[in-house]
Amino acid sequence: SPQEAAFQDRIDAGETIEPQDWMPEGYRKTLIRQIGQHAHSEIVGQLPEGNWITRAPTLERKAILLAKVQDEAGHGLYLYCAAETLGISRDDMTEQLLSGRMKYSSIFNYPTLSWADIGAVGWLVDGAAIMNQVPLQRTSYGPYSRAMIRICKEESFHQRQGFDIMMKMAKGTEAQRRMAQDALDRFWYPSLMMFGPSDAESVHSAQNMAWRIKINGNDELRQKFVDQTVPQAEYLGLTVPDEKLAWNEEKGGYDFSEPDWEEFFAVLKGQGPESAERMKARRDAWEEGQWVRDAMSAHAAKKAARREAAE
Amino acid sequence: SPQEAAFQDRIDAGETIEPQDWMPEGYRKTLIRQIGQHAHSEIVGQLPEGNWITRAPTLERKAILLAKVQDEAGHGLYLYCAAETLGISRDDMTEQLLSGRMKYSSIFNYPTLSWADIGAVGWLVDGAAIMNQVPLQRTSYGPYSRAMIRICKEESFHQRQGFDIMMKMAKGTEAQRRMAQDALDRFWYPSLMMFGPSDAESVHSAQNMAWRIKINGNDELRQKFVDQTVPQAEYLGLTVPDEKLAWNEEKGGYDFSEPDWEEFFAVLKGQGPESAERMKARRDAWEEGQWVRDAMSAHAAKKAARREAAE
Amino acid sequence: MLDAGFDPVGALALRMGDNALILGHRVSEWCGRAPVLEEDIALANIALDLIGQAQLWLGLAGESAGKTADELAFLRDAWDFRCLLLVEQPNGDFGRTVMRQFLFDAWHVEMLRGLCASSEPRISEIAQKAVREVDYHLERSSAQVVALGDGTEESHARMQAALDWLWPWAGEALVADPVDVALAEEGIAPAPEAVRPGWEATLRRVLGEASLALPESDFAHRGGKDGKRHSEALGHLLTQMQWLQRAYPGATW
Amino acid sequence: MLDAGFDPVGALALRMGDNALILGHRVSEWCGRAPVLEEDIALANIALDLIGQAQLWLGLAGESAGKTADELAFLRDAWDFRCLLLVEQPNGDFGRTVMRQFLFDAWHVEMLRGLCASSEPRISEIAQKAVREVDYHLERSSAQVVALGDGTEESHARMQAALDWLWPWAGEALVADPVDVALAEEGIAPAPEAVRPGWEATLRRVLGEASLALPESDFAHRGGKDGKRHSEALGHLLTQMQWLQRAYPGATW
């Protein structure tokens, strides 16, 4: 349609789409799914790190971790707001998360089993997230793009903090070094999965790229992540758990093994090691919080009524 | 009445009253209250010790403590059965416990705060309990007397185990010695309270003694307990927290300070440090277990019906 | 009553620091589990403020003995803690967490105001920083108590139950013990009696607005701030909080 | 796959011991909180049996390295544990505890029967003692699964939910890993494939009688018995279990 063509022209011209603008239904739906999934990831992502807040080893580490998890909740909030501009409410999105119709990043279905995992989450998971998100600062939808700009600023901070934990562990006692290596062993492939399956298998890629909802290819970002991370692992004195890993002079990047995509799809289906626990935690929080949300709206309504009556 | 006189004659002759025998209503009621309270004490008494089962310091200590707590549940069972012979059901007694109409020993409203407390509970609390219970083996009501005989056998074993923990602590590291002393400091007076207020203030004593439901006076037993326990404390190298404590050659026993009876009555009212937690734990267990009890009776009824139908 | 080596500054700092540490820990247990996202953020914020205050107070508390705040936080057993029993109490439902916060904030803010005028400059300095944060905590917890007390029948019942449950632990802060007396005499800290009127006024105002009934009993459990008898809950909290430092002694993190 | 210093007896004993230890611990968490008094007693009994078995197995496991059962129980961190993921799972409601016990018992009894014929006499000796206890555990947990599955609509729903929830953790024991293969080759332990038929028969019989539907998926989480990826629950359990030994190193109790 001419409307669609005009829309595409605006995007091609690098213009930003705003909530009040006309947009194709597919664009709106895809964005809701993508932003919602990202928002849910921030929320569920609080849990694996929250798992160590009560066991953080020093007061400073506890404060840093608390602040980080708080930032993630904040990111969730920005993103829900961005999605709301597309005509879906936060409660709707939450219901869809809890019923399993909306997903969140598969990485958060893995457990955090030692303090080094908190380092690895910052270093690898936030590292991969940034790689995904930095280009999205230039995405076509205005509210989403502005949310990503705020988020990226904080994420790179988180990644440095994660790397700092890994440094302390890798240069620490033998047990700490072992924890650091074990964390890398467990988080390496799940981190590679964060970029999604190979573009060849990704159905919607072309349209999303045309809409500037997706900016780079999955394989391209994954390569970039590996190229950035391997030297950091070497600097830490840790071994990336990939026997095929080797520098490829020709392509100017590392050759590396693909993650186990069967595992990836199993985790997406809810078979991740902590999938059931994560959903249970969110569902419990939602159900046990119902009376609070009800009370808050009831109080707000009463207050408004009283104000009105007084006028 | 002549019936009452005959009843009293039997008791005076040292005979045992059995469930099918006639008995005065007051006798029955008092026994229900006393046995029920004792049974509830065994049940609630699992909680302060259960509090350290998951933190027991060695596998052997864990096994010993588990076995002990299991014995207590068993004691509760004997005692509920004894009370049931008087025409009250276990469920009724439980409801009365949970609604606060029936009491349990005030000692179990105190917290167990270190491993030494587990020793102190065995040494002091079981020690005081035994002192109360040994004479009750000769109580006039048959089922109660027989229950007490079984219980006393196990209790003295528990007391030795408690003393053994105290020994290990008192002869252990400085921190362990400090734990042992701290436990004695906190459990001394509550243990003295276990014998009840001075006989002078005890209303029902005379009748209960005539009925052989109560055998010795409270002060008498308390004195005996102090006389037995003080040398044990000395042997452990611990200090009884009583500046007035002194050997009285004339009476052939120790002079000692009375416990704070105001605290005792406050604790009975539900103001003990862990009173609310204890009742909450029992209430939660009862409420959360309702579906299990319902299912078990439903299953038993179905099974019986199927058996009948098959015949 | 107090031994010769009594260090008033250390004693005050330890009490204030342990309150902040333990309540901060309790609040942090909510992470990712609050009824609304905004509450997740707000609870993390309060926990952060309290952990920050704990660092300052415990740093001061350890000065004379040459101990760091971390050593005090992670290497003492329960009996050496000097926090109020109130802050050790488990979170319960959200209503109980809010009520615990309110009861504590109402005391905390008055105490900190008094400490701003402490004769000891290191104390008044920390208090001046903390009181700004705690003013906000009280504002927030008051508003929540009012909203949830006023909200629905269920929320009102839950808030009243929370108040009734927590009340016996609320009074400890307001009952003077020998340490309080000594600190007041030296002008280090306000006496509990000086703190009480403001605390009571806050309670009456907020609970009144929330249509919650103040329990009549003035019975108060004791044993937290003097360490004589903490509740069982504290020991369990420490098994988590101190795990890493205990399991890997001497490591740096 | 296995390194040169692989100690088959130690490896088997560690797996068996850790299962008994961790499940025994979980069961002991019920103390004083069961739905009926008889269950309090029965649960304590099971916990006692399992802790006793843990002592024997861990004693054997530590022999070659000169470690005591207590050292193994209280001074290893999560990654060095070799228990099945199933036994680490939190208790949940009583139905889930019963179901976890049943799923474990059904495997445990078959495994122990196989171990009675181990080529290693120290293993068969422990197995012969344990199997008598575990026969009884299975009898009991089977009866409970049947009773609660059959009981009321609510209990049936709860038991089915428990089964569905636990199912992904039930299969790990039955999937061979390199250690299992090596142990079977040396005649130390039965191969998981040898254990499976009996396990499946028990499940079909009991769940059938309980009118509970066996989940269709054969997906099984892994990472417990090889220690590669325990669940988060284990670390929390250890903070309690190991507290005293960690906090007071070197003390005797």
TrEMBL record, chains C, D:
It comes from the Bacteria. GO terms for biological process: phenylacetate catabolic process. GO terms for cellular component: cytosol. NCBIfam families: PA_CoA_Oxy3. This is Ring-1,2-phenylacetyl-CoA epoxidase subunit PaaC. It comes from Vannielia litorea.
